[in-house]
Amino acid sequence: MTEFFSQWLPYEWSWFIATISGILLIALPLMLSVAMIIYVDRKIWAAIALRRGPNVVGPWGLLQSFADGLKVFLQETIVPSASNKVLFLLAPIITFTVALMAWAVIPFNGRAILADINVGLLYILAISSLGVYGTIIAGWSSNSKYPFFSAMRASAQMISYEVSIGFILVCVVMYAGTFNMNGIVLGQREHMFGVFNGYGFNPLLFPMAVMFLISGMAETQRAPFDLTEAESELVAGYQTEYSSMSFALYWLGEYANVLLMCALNATLFWGGWLPPIEWAPLYWIPGWVWLFGKIFLFFFIFSWVKATVPRYRYDQLMRLGWKVFLPVSLLFVVLVSGWLMWRQGA
Predict the structure, then answer these.
(1) What is the rounded CA–CA span in Å between residue 338 and residue 346?
(2) ∠ Cα 159 160 161 (to 5°)
(3) Which residues on adjacent β-strands are paired with residue 277?
(4) pLDDT tens digit at each of 346 positions of the chain
């Protein structure tokens, strides 16, 4: 895109306009997707519960999310008098901004990527770890006991599962030999028997793909791991004192993070923008169509689990992260590295 603008403008301005255009091309469709994915989420829950779901506002209820957004926008913004007002208003901005920043290194096609950096996976790990600040600041700045308890619970949960996710990603990096997200996708081409595109088809990495999916649910605080919003215990969680657009930013940030985890599942283990089978006619379909199809599949799994699996107790949640996922992920780091060394020696 920089080359396109450089026909009329100096290189510095061409780079600047191309970068801003790329950010808008990702951020605006993403925010629209978040609005529609909330509608899809509610429709999936309704279908599983044998209900109809949103069906009044707009054709088939498609405008329900926009009506909800307008309602939230028109509400009064209430800031508790005893809160730290600067941090109280800053916390949802941090959460929403961090949720969008991670999309900068997600490849939508071979060349459709905002920042094709060599350390793309490390960038995602660094950015995702910042999300905990938006949570803990919200609970502390509210100056209310239940939001603070929820924020402590949420931060412990997010940090616990980030450890396991880190070791899972080590396995992927060892197989791909790169931290570059596009390189990881291309490394999955013809990975299994020259037919299947994706590390998830590898029996050694398939357990890691399953663990990453479950850890993603815990990282984004989705059911059955939504202990931060256990209504009977913590009212509504760390965002209890928020209203109007400050609450909406948490709402949008949560779904943007869920979509990011679905995109990472697709990109790291299931071929990203590649078709699932290495067959030339399948490449006639644009890569972004394959990526979006896989994202929707994983989002359906997220919604399916939320509608059917009962909530974990907090001790069960932490035991799963520290006593199951962490040892297993460490074991697979050893197994994968041993397998790669043996294959290299052979």
Answers:
(1) 12
(2) 95
(3) 196
(4) 566 656 666 767 677 777 787 778 877 888 888 888 989 999 999 999 899 888 888 888 888 888 988 888 888 888 888 888 899 889 888 888 888 888 889 998 877 788 888 888 999 988 888 888 888 898 899 888 888 888 888 888 888 898 899 999 999 999 999 999 999 999 999 888 888 999 999 889 999 999 999 999 998 888 888 877 765 565 677 888 888 888 888 888 888 889 999 999 999 999 999 999 998 899 999 999 999 999 999 999 999 998 898 888 888 989 999 999 999 999 999 999 999 999 887 5
CA nearest to 342, candidates 174, 160, 172: 174
CB atoms within 10 A of CB 280: 7
Q: Give Dmax (Cα) for the chain.
A: 69
End-to-end CA distance of the chain: 45
Kindly report the backbone phi and psi dihedral angles of residue 277, in degrees, each rounded to the nearest multiple of 5, phi listed first.
Answer: -120, 135
267: exposed, middle or buried (Cβ count in 10 Å: 0-12, 13-18, 19+): buried
DSSP-assigned states of every residue in 103-128: GGG--SSSS--S---TTHHHHHHHHH
Per-residue CA distances from 302 to 96, 139, 234, 251, 305 (Å):
20, 26, 23, 16, 5
Contact 252/31 with Cβ under 8 angstroms? Answer: yes
Ramachandran quadrant class, 207 (left: phi over 0; alpha: psi -120 to 50; beta: rest): alpha
Q: Where are the alpha helices (DSSP H) in the chain?
A: 2-5, 11-48, 64-74, 85-101, 120-141, 145-176, 181-187, 206-219, 231-234, 244-269, 287-308, 314-319, 326-345
